[in-house]
Structures are given as structure tokens and as C-alpha cells.
Amino acid sequence: MEKLQYDIKKRTSKIELPTELGFGKLFTDHIFEMEYNPEKGWHNPIIKHVENLSVHPGSMFIHYGQAIFEGLKAFKSVDGRITIFRPKDHIQRLNNSAKRICIPLVDEEFLLYALTELVSIESDWIPTNPGESLYIRPVIYGMDPSLGVKPSTNYKLFILLSPVGAYYPEGFKPVKILVQDNYVRAVRKGLGECKTPANYAASLLAAKEAKEKGFTQVLWLDGIDQKFLEEVGTMNIFVEFKDEIATPKLNGSILPGVTRRSVIQLLKDNGKNVTERGISIDEVIAAYKNGTLISLFGTGTAAVISPVGWLTYKDLKMTLNNGEPSNIAQYLFDQLSSLHILKVEDKYDWVVQVNNEEVEA
Ligand code: COI
Q: What is the domain range of residue 28?
């Protein structure tokens, strides 16, 4: 890989972050970019000022959706260091998504280096209020101008940064979820486990209709029988039964969440009976009716932990844990938030620390 280039414009004014950051509305000054062609492989890696992309209207990703992305977060630790949560896992997942839709793989070590350089250069943008972070969005898309359906030969990769607050307006407060049985998000052996825009496009109408009815998001059921739980909104889902905490097993249509994996580890280390298995909506309803259902919560990079306070399936409206976060959801939220900022020891080696020495422009 060629040497990373820098074309950095120093800011003349101080960064003033708004008190309400929202999610993904504000972007930092610089972006990382590199390009791929079959002769040179990935080349031209550069950190430069953000500018509009110049895209041919025939670019393949516009027509046929050959694109993938990731979402991860950087924080300032309690003692002022810059931390990124599980970047290697996210970069690995980016390559797994790449394989599925014929995008050339990236050199994981180099991408981690470029990503940490970018975060270091933009470290003044990392917000420090509880619940806030610098969201990191790597994207790869096929850019050949061509209308034939086939993999592109040329690609662009960029990493965009956005200071963010809570993903859902509710923050950590419990959300209202509608069990969706009119539409499906993905089917097995399709694109469900791949972080590609198509899956999010598939979710829009269901989310819109749920919002119009007063719900925050939907709980997706499996694509064949609409019987088994898959994901909730943009997150993985966990169900707390009296003696077990269960999450749908990765079956090819569910996104293998990095927060999901972290939560499983934290629960196991706390001696909880955590399982990955098929969970039917009928089982959830039966447990609700016989008093053995405690709660549900979602896990994801953007939302971290999102307790479900109310779950509606057809005509049945279920209030979970009196509409309050369960003790487990609270514990996981606190623990993950503390790990992000190294308020507790990172015995898992999940956090990568970034050097923020001045970079020679
Ligand atoms: C994430 O949790 O990082 C996601 O990618 C979800 C999303 C905002 C699309």
C-alpha cells in the first residue's frame, strides 16, 4: 500500500458543538479516501478536507446498490485519551460484507491505521458529554459508469466522521416497538448479514408506518414464516426471560452486531445464562402471559443499549418491566459506556487508543 497522504486545512475558528447533537447531522472537516482499480489495487490513500463527491450518473452503486458501510465510535477517555471501540471487529465485518457483494477486500491493518490517523486529526470534534461520541462511517461503493448488472471494476472507500448524541430521541429511555408482520427485512442466504444500504432501504416503509402509529421502531420477524425474532430497528435484540437471556442466533439474515457480541461476553462473564437460539414471537407472548418475561432490549453501535418498554403484536399490547429499563439493560449500558471511556479496566482489549500527536501536513 502506498504511503498515506495528508492535505489538511487547519481550522481558524474554534469548534463549537451544539448542545443537542442529534445523530449524523454534523460532519467534521476531514475525510479519508482511497480508490481501487484492478491494476493498482487500493491506492491513493489520502486524508483531506471534506468536499462533495464527483459521481458519474451511471455509477453502478446508484443503479444496483453495490455499496457497503460500517458504523463505529470514538470517545475521549476519562483521562483525556482518544479511544475507539472494537475497530478491528468493524473492519473485519466490512471485509465480510465486501465478500458478499463482490467488492475487493481492504488491507485491515492499513485501514485501521488510516482510521486512527483521521480520528487523531479530528480529535477536537469528539464530544465529551455522556451519551455522545464521534461516529465513524466507512463506506465503499462501486463507481464504474455502466448499466450492465455485474460487479464494478473501480471502487471508492471513504471514512466520514460525525459527532453524535443518542440515536433514538428517547436516549436510554425505553422505546415503543411494533412487531412487524407485513414486511420483512431480509431472508436467509440473502443480504441480511451484510451491512449494505439495501437492508436499510428495505426497512424504511415499515419504520415510517410504525412511526405514524406512535412507535419508535419495528421488531422484525423471520422472512419465511414471520414467526421467529430477527432484529429490532437498526439493532440486534435480546429477550430476558426469568432464567435465561436469549438472542436470535446468527442465521444468515441477521446482522452480526459488534455490540451484540460484546453484550454476550459481558453477560457470560457475569454468570448469566445467555443463549443464541431461535426465539418465536409465540414464546415471547407465552412468557409475557405466564409472568416469565422480564424485558427486551436492543443492542447496536449507534444506540448502544435500548430498552424496550412496550411491545405490540397484532392486538396485544405488552408493557415490559413497567415501562422501565431492566436491571440487566441498565448494567449493560453502564458497563459499555464505562468501557468506551476507560472508566473501567478494558480486560477484553476491545478499546484501541489513538495517538494524538500533531500530524505533519
Ligand atoms: C449502527 O448501529 O452503527 C448502525 O449502523 C445503525 C445505523 C445508524 C444505520
A: 5-165+350-354
Mean pLDDT of 108-126: 97
Verify whether ligand 1 is closer than 6 Å to residue 71 (CB atom). yes
CA 230 to CA 255: how far, in whole Å?
9
CA distance 262 to 272: 14
Query: What's the structural domain count of the chain?
Result: 2
Confidence label for 357 from pLDDT (cuts 50, 70 and 90): low
The alpha carbon of 71 and the centre of ligand 1 are apart by a number of angstroms equal to 6
For 207-233, what is the mean pLDDT? 96
**Looking at the predicted structure, is the pLDDT value of residue 168 above 90?**
no
Nearest to 178 by CA among 224, 144, 220, 140: 220
- 97 C-beta closer than 6 A to ligand 1: no
**pLDDT confidence bin for 322, thresholds 50/70/90:** very high
The pLDDT value recorded for residue 64 is 97
At 360, the pLDDT band (50, 70, 90 cuts) reads very low
**Mean pLDDT for the chain?**
95
Of all helices (H) and strands (E), which one includes residue 259?
A: helix 258-269
Ligand 1 centroid to 304 CA: how many Å? 10
Closest to 74 in 3D by CA, of 151, 174, 161? 161
Choose one of 164, 200, 234 to mutate for the ligand 1 pocket test, by most ligand atoms within 8 angstroms of C-beta: 234
Same domain, 14 and 139: yes
Q: Which residue has the cell 418465536?
A: 280
Domain contains 336: no
Q: Which atom of ligand 1 is nearest to the CA of 135?
A: 3
Domain harbouring 144, CATH code: 3.30.470.10
Distance CA 325, CA 303 (A): 14
Q: Within a domain: residue 26?
A: yes
Full-model pTM: 0.96
Q: How far is the CA of 156 from the centre of ligand 1 (A)?
A: 20
